[in-house]
Amino acid sequence: MTDTVLSDDIAVQLTTQTLNHNYSGAQAHLQAGTTMEVRKIAGALGAEISGVDLSTPLNAIQAKEIRQALLDHQVIFLRNQEITPQRFLDFAQAMGEPVEYPFVKGLQDFPQIIEVKKLETEKVNFGGIWHSDTTYLQVPPMGSMLLSREVPPYGGDTMFANQELAYEALSDTMKGLLDGLIGISTSAKADVSRTREDRIRTDGKEEQLEDYVAEHPVVRTHPETGRKSLYVNIAHTAGIKGMTDEESKPLLEFLFQHQVKPEFTCRFVWTPNAIAFWDNRCAMHNPVNDYHGFRRVMNRITLKGDKPF
Ligand SMILES: O=C(O)CCC(=O)C(=O)O
């Protein structure tokens, strides 16, 4: 760590030396006056950021660098952030526009923060299937973030998959076939609905739940980076516009398997007070349900996106 009484120049020098010593080969980025470091955790996607303390407001440089790290790595992680719901919301507001989750009530006084939890007595984990968040909405979220409040002694990792790499790895002929197709997403697919049941029972919104359906391109273009990625997922994509189920099923089944090949993924091992912030426009995620008998509690915020194109 850098001693804060040092001048910025010396502080940056010292921190650089520390980085070179501890993390040779890691991707590091230092800016005068900050000690933020961005370190990849896997070949495909994912980077851990250190040198940021979210218990005080971010300055503009830090906010910009963190946002850039998200675009560069698709999912970013910050550990040791023991912060209040208000500070978590402040961080989310510095990254985008927090919105409410459709099915689950927020915390008292914080409607945009929901609890994602699995109790000791439960067997099903919330969102426990590969997906990009709520693609059944007309305007699906740009990103989502989780802050770990209680973690099991082992297990409960979250996996992520890079959908730009998944698209890139396809043959030109398959890319040509997929470009221009429209996928149909629904909130009612049985496998994912089951993963929400426990939470809806305890924390569900009172208003009548509706099923949502939305149409989005099978290959979407990232509105900030311009890169193309696959935008179907086994949790929500139920068909392809203009195709019979018989026609779309084998194609979708191929894509569902292809898009989560191990070489497109990374895996985050949670510690208490860690944050994961992912970009739903180009990455999918899947929390691993391997910790029956233990409790896992997260706070989650969703960030507003735009209509996929
Ligand atoms: O619990 C997790 O790690 C992820 C949960 C999830 O799928 C979500 O919040 O969208």
Protein described:
With 309 residues, this protein is an alpha+beta fold. The protein has a single domain, classed as Clavaminate synthase-like (Double-stranded beta-helix), CATH 3.60.130. It contains seven helices and 16 strands. The protein has helices at residues 8-22, 60-73, 85-95, 163-168, 172-178, 190-203, 245-258; strands at 37-40, 47-50, 75-78, 98-99, 113-118, 143-150, 158-162, 182-186, 213-217, 219-221, 228-230, 237-240, 265-268, 275-279, 283-287, 296-303. The strands form four sheets. Strands 1, 2, 3, 4, 5, 6, 14 and 16 form an eight-stranded mixed beta sheet that branches. Strand 2 (47-50), helix 2 (60-73) and strand 3 (75-78) form a beta-alpha-beta unit.
Element order: H for helix, E for strand: HEEHEHEEEEHHEHEEEEHEEEE
Radius of gyration, in Å, reads 20 Å
Q: Provide the low-confidence segments as ranges.
A: 1-33
CATH architecture: 4-Layer Sandwich
